[in-house]
Amino acid sequence: MDVSLTLIIVMAVLFAAGVYAMLERSLTRVLIGFMLLGNATNLLLLIVMGVPGNAPFFGFSDVSDPLPQALTLTAIVITFAVTAFLLALIYRSWQLGQADTVEDDEADIALRARTDADEDVMDDEDETGGDDATTDFVDVRTAPITVLQMRDHPSIHDDAPVDRAWSPDASTGSASGSTTSDDEEEDRP
C-alpha cells in the first residue's frame, strides 16, 4: 500500500488542531474544531481506502473497496448536520447574551471545589454493592409484571357494558351472543 506521507501528516495536524480548538470555551472555536475533526476523519477514510483501482463492479482484479467511500459520504452528512446544529446554538447564544462563550454554572464551580477527601468518600459509597448483584435495584424483590383489568381493582366501580358470552348457533352456524356479566356466568351450574 503506497500512501503519501503528506496525507498522513495533514491528517494528524487536522486532528490535533481540531481537538485543541474543541477544548476552548468559545462555541465558534468548538465549531471550527469540529469541522477540522470532520475533515481529518474524511482524510483518514481516504488513506484507509488504499490505492485507487477500478470501479467496484468493473471486474475482479484491482478493484476499489466501496466501504470507505460510503463511510466518507456518511461522515460528510453527519458533519454537515452537526455543524448546522452548532451554528444554530451559536446564533441563539449570541441573541441571548451577545457572546458565544460558555460560562461556569454552580455545578461546575462545586465540582472544581471538591477535594480529594470528597472523592474518596464518593468512591467508598460506590463500593457498597457486591459483584453478584444482577440488577441495579439491590435488595428489591422483583416479580413479573401483572396486568390488572378495571374489574380486578376493588376501589373502582366498573360501569362498562358487560361482556358477551359467545355461543355458536346450531341452526345457522353463526355466532350469537347473550349479554351476561361475569358474575352471572360464575353463578351458573
Compact description:
Pfam families: Oxidored_q2 (PF00420). The protein is mainly α.
Please give the structural blueprint:
Layout: H1 5-22, H2 27-49, H3 66-97, H4 106-113, H5 116-126, E1 164-168, E2 175-179, H6 182-187
Antiparallel strand pairs: 1-2
Helix pairs in contact: 1-2, 2-3
Structure description:
The protein is mostly helical and 189 residues long. It has a domain at 5-105: Helix Hairpins (Orthogonal Bundle). The protein has 6 helices and 2 strands; from the N terminus they run H-H-H-H-H-E-E-H. The protein has helices at residues 5-22, 27-49, 66-97, 106-113, 116-126, 182-187; strands spanning 164-168, 175-179. Strands 1-2 form a two-stranded antiparallel ribbon. A hairpin with a 6-residue loop joins strand 1 and strand 2. Helix 1 (5-22) packs antiparallel against helix 2 (27-49) and helix 2 (27-49) runs antiparallel to helix 3 (66-97). The longest helix has 32 residues, at 66-97. The chain starts with a helix and ends with a helix. The model has no long low-confidence stretch (mean pLDDT 75).
Termini separation: 87 Å
C-alpha geometry = extended
How are helices and strands ordered from N to C? HHHHHEEH
Share in β-strands: 5-15%
Helix content: 40-55%
Q: State the major sheet.
A: 2 strands, antiparallel
What is the CATH topology classification name of the domain at 5-105? Helix Hairpins
Secondary structural class: mainly alpha
Q: What is the CA-atom radius of gyration, in angstroms?
A: 33 Å
Low-confidence stretches: none
Q: Please list the strands of the largest sheet in the order they lie side by side.
A: 1-2
pLDDT averaged residue by residue: 75
CATH 2nd-level architecture of the domain at 5-105: Orthogonal Bundle
| Total beta strands | 2
Family: Belongs to the CPA3 antiporters (TC 2.A.63) subunit C family.
Biased composition (Basic and acidic residues): 150-162
Organism: Microbacterium aerolatum
Biased composition (Low complexity): 169-180
